[in-house]
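Continuing the series of single-chain predictions for the mutant panel. This is the parent chain; the variants come on the following pages.
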Amino acid sequence: MVSISSELLQTWIISLLWPLTRVLGVMATAPIFSHNTIPNRIKLGIGIVFTMIIMPTLPPLPQFEIFSFQGLLILVQQLVIGLAIGFSMRLVFAAVDLAGQLIGMSMGLGFATFFDPQSQGQSTAVNQFLILLAMLIFLSLDGHLMIVTAMANSFITMPIAIGGSGINPMKIALWGETIFSAGLLLALPVVAALLITNMALGILTRTAPQLNLFGIGFPITLSIGFLVLALALPGMLKPIENFIEQGISNMHQVAVPVEVPAASSLIPSQSFGKP
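Parent structure:
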């Protein structure tokens, strides 16, 4: 008869629970994996599969009681690390979201907003279009596989332990500027064209007061906005690719690295974006 001791059972539980917490943290914030259209049971199943694949490659885990202070501290630490890894990639899509909001508001589509279940807020049609475009580019670059690679390598750069390697919060805060700089860069052609259009309409209204500005202004700004957006879409492709590659690179730099041999890397990492 096979007997299982409490120590062995606890080792099995922590070997699954701690890595699974980090994996689910990544899936809760990373693009594609965190989409609300994916049922939670599917997300949990995918997380368990990823964890079962990663478990044999993990370094020795610390032996603490699951419900002890150290055990709960490690559990919270793994959740925060996973959320930080996914959040560093989420910043790129937040920049695209901001660009869509700026373009939509400049075109006069502020009244045509609807509820977005993904962001749990109001969004415009242009916003949703750019988000879908960014997701297609993300999938074409195998971004979802790069997320899995960064998540797996994080167990080497950030081993499961108390102390040692951790998250650099200042670095993540500085990456937040990507939302504003990249979002403004993507929206700049359309916003500039609409600004010139509004200035021209203002001059026209002053020279010909009999014209109904509200009658002709909205169709003109809407038409020019869609025209400039269609012309600017091919030029947006490369910047969005660069932002996604930089986000993937940021995912590998979330941790404060520890000294580990180069041969101990779980999955060969690649260099993405500019250093």
